[in-house]
Amino acid sequence: MTYQIKAFENGIRVVHQEVTSTRLVHCGFILDIGSRDETEEQVGLAHFWEHMAFKGTQKRKAFHILNRLDSVGGELNAYTTKEKICFYATVLQQHWNKAADLLCDITFNSTFPPKQIEKERQVILEEMAMYRDSPDDALQDEFDSLLFPNHSLGYNILGTEDSVKSFTQEDFINFIAQHMDTSRIVVSVVGNISFKKALNRLAPLLSNIPASRSSLRRTPSLTYKPQSSAFHKEITQANCALGKPAFSIDDPRRFKLHLLNNILGGPSMNSRLNMALREKHGLVYSIESVYQAFTDTGFIGIYYGTEEKAAEKARKIVLKEIQRICTKKLGSMQLHMGKEQAIGQMAMAEENYAGLMLVYGKTLLDKGKIERLEDIFSSIRSATAEELMELANEVYDVDKFSFLTYLPK
């Protein structure tokens, strides 16, 4: 399968891939704006904007936005991350024009009605309460602030109760005026529609968007020092996190780190951490190791929950597995299986066309190009056991780890 890219004079780019084996079209408007672009007073504003995009535009009220695609069996959604806001939809191919028009409208023409702000403010406060009641989610959010102290990457994407209660219509308008940059917007389309037909609808919509540029630049977090914190919560398990900053998106070693992380504690049941903590000792229901890359930094994190009385034993086993991957070279069969597993997972992910659409948009914004899967596979296949052990000693240096634990009261 091949993709095509079209750039408009205002800087907005369209990336498209036709898939004839589906009845659906997936489309997303991906903006290179996220929670890390907020000031301390604005924390939570990008996520609030994502909510408010559905609450009214210059030509549609909230009901008409929500009903437009639902009434034809489509889906309309959005998300906010540290570095991106995305508005996206999935529809049957015959309803493509409706989806494209609606996504463009909510992305560029939201009016942020004050009455709707008051309603959605309470919705977000409830969302925050829901996350606080989920210790694994709250733990991961708080762990970010240890990895990126006094930096916007460490802010909670949802914001704080005080910040969410403070936002006005003017705050949204000013934030968008400051950050909207049409050269940092990608429209991604994957599905059963030709490039020509997609552009026939998108061209008149996108070419009318005025060009805008933002002079704001992201600054990296440079103040990391290992920390260890523990808090008592109204929970029944000990919830634990450990990790440290790691490679950015531009680091050529990131795919090899992805492979190493996958072997240690990736999503498969045969990861080393899952085999040691769940299968051998029965200490956890789930444990995950993640590697997240940003434009100028990244982090590795390991998260799990266990009985309070088993917390120390579980930590020792985790550290033992980390030490093992740093000191004992992978055997040829282990390395081969690890590579095949990582490559297989990526190949399966490409079959998820909604996910592929989002990956295309994000990658084009971050890298200026779409990385071919074969090139990624080649990077993974070229990894040697010696390289991975050297990488492990650099990245999984536990002396530089931070630790965060939630304990039952």
Could you characterize what this model shows?
This protein is an alpha+beta fold and 409 residues long. It folds into 2 domains: 4-207, 2-Layer Sandwich (Cytochrome Bc1 Complex, Chain A, domain 1), CATH 3.30.830.10; 228-408, Cytochrome Bc1 Complex, Chain A, domain 1 (2-Layer Sandwich), CATH 3.30.830.10. Helices cover 45% and strands 19% of the residues. It is built from 15 helices and 11 strands. The protein has helices at 45-52, 62-70, 96-108, 114-132, 135-147, 161-166, 169-179, 195-206, 254-265, 272-280, 311-327, 332-350, 353-367, 373-381, 385-395; strands at residues 4-7, 13-18, 24-31, 75-80, 85-92, 185-191, 228-233, 238-246, 287-293, 298-306, 402-408. The strands form 2 sheets. Strands 1-2-6-3-5-4 form a 6-stranded mixed β-sheet, with helices on both faces. Strand 4 and strand 5 form a beta hairpin. The radius of gyration is 22 Å and the shape is globular.
List keywords for this structure.
single chain, 409 residues, alpha+beta, Cytochrome Bc1 Complex, Chain A, domain 1, 11 strands, 45% helix, globular
Overall average residue pLDDT: 96
Q: What is the radius of gyration computed over CA atoms, rounded to a whole number of angstroms?
A: 22 Å
**Tell me about the biggest sheet?**
6 strands, mixed
Structural class: alpha+beta
The CATH architecture of the largest domain would be 2-Layer Sandwich
Overall number of structural domains: 2
Share of residues in strands: 15-25%
Q: Find the count of extended strands (DSSP E, 2+ residues).
A: 11
Strand arrangement in the largest pleated sheet: 1-2-6-3-5-4
Overall shape: it is: globular
